[in-house]
Amino acid sequence: MTIHKEGYTTIALSILFIFVINAVVDYKYHDITWLRWFIYIFSAALFIIVLQFFRNPSRSFSSGENLVICPADGKVVVIEETEEGEYFKDKRLQVSIFMSPVNVHINRNPISGVVKFFKYHPGKYLAAWNPKSSTENERTTTVVEHKNGTPVLFRQIAGALARRIVWYVKEGDQVVQTEQFGFIKFGSRVDVFLPVGTKVNVELNQVVKGGITTLATLS
């Protein structure tokens, strides 16, 4: 397991904060043993939590020409037909994965193909399970066209804790299935929009792994 590059600055700032708070307590309150031990334990817990936020575990990825691979770790919270109003402007099959703060936060391409559309939207930070988060929160929308002509839309959505979305793609890019397309700091949600009638291979509340779990099979 390695640490993702998006965590370097946050980890460095965390180390600086831990150093400062421990130095202050040791200097000013060296005679209050319980307080010093409380700060030591708090510092260790904080450091471990920050590290796990940015972990990048080694994995053997799934692949398949007509497979849609899960773009994120988390739990499936939505499987439904809905109106997609930004790009397709018609009915699509939506599959949504909720990423909690303890999940790996790397986002991976569900299919290989060409990026036909990309847009970043500034917005609110509603809780990720709020239905309005898909249209009102900070988010990115990416559409990749499969070589068979099928477009798949996936959307990074910020949540109440996630205050930074990172993306590595732009229109015209050729992307490869399971390679990284972005990162959401401290969890949130990823929506995938598929053609109606696509065979879905996951169930509601199923725990899924980014780059490993097969989300759906394209016709």
TrEMBL record:
Subunit structure: Heterodimer of a large membrane-associated beta subunit and a small pyruvoyl-containing alpha subunit.
Active site feature: S188
GO molecular function, one term: phosphatidylserine decarboxylase activity
Statement: the UniProt record of this protein carries the keyword Cell membrane: yes
Membrane topology: Peripheral membrane protein
NCBIfam families in the cross-refs: PRK05305.1-2 (NF003678)
Subcellular location, record wording: Cell membrane
Parts of the chain that traverse the membrane: 7-25, 37-54
Post-translational modification: Is synthesized initially as an inactive proenzyme. Formation of the active enzyme involves a self-maturation process in which the active site pyruvoyl group is generated from an internal serine residue via an autocatalytic post-translational modification. Two non-identical subunits are generated from the proenzyme in this reaction, and the pyruvate is formed at the N-terminus of the alpha chain, which is derived from the carboxyl end of the proenzyme.
UniProt-listed InterPro entries: PS_Dcarbxylase, PSD-A
Family affiliation: Belongs to the phosphatidylserine decarboxylase family. PSD-A subfamily.
Chief location bin: membrane
Record organism: Pedobacter psychrodurus
Cofactor: pyruvate
Site feature Cleavage (non-hydrolytic), where: G187, S188
Function: Catalyzes the formation of phosphatidylethanolamine (PtdEtn) from phosphatidylserine (PtdSer).
Protein's UniProt name: Phosphatidylserine decarboxylase proenzyme
Modified residues (Pyruvic acid (Ser)): S188
A Pfam entry, by short name: PS_Dcarbxylase
GO CC annotation: plasma membrane
Cofactor binding notes: Binds 1 pyruvoyl group covalently per subunit.
Reaction catalysed by this enzyme: a 1,2-diacyl-sn-glycero-3-phospho-L-serine + H(+) = a 1,2-diacyl-sn-glycero-3-phosphoethanolamine + CO2
Superkingdom per UniProt: Bacteria
Annotated keywords: Cell membrane, Decarboxylase, Lipid biosynthesis, Lipid metabolism, Lyase, Membrane, Phospholipid biosynthesis, Phospholipid metabolism, Pyruvate, Transmembrane, Transmembrane helix, Zymogen
Pathway where this protein functions: Phospholipid metabolism; phosphatidylethanolamine biosynthesis; phosphatidylethanolamine from CDP-diacylglycerol: step 2/2
EC identifiers of the protein: 4.1.1.65
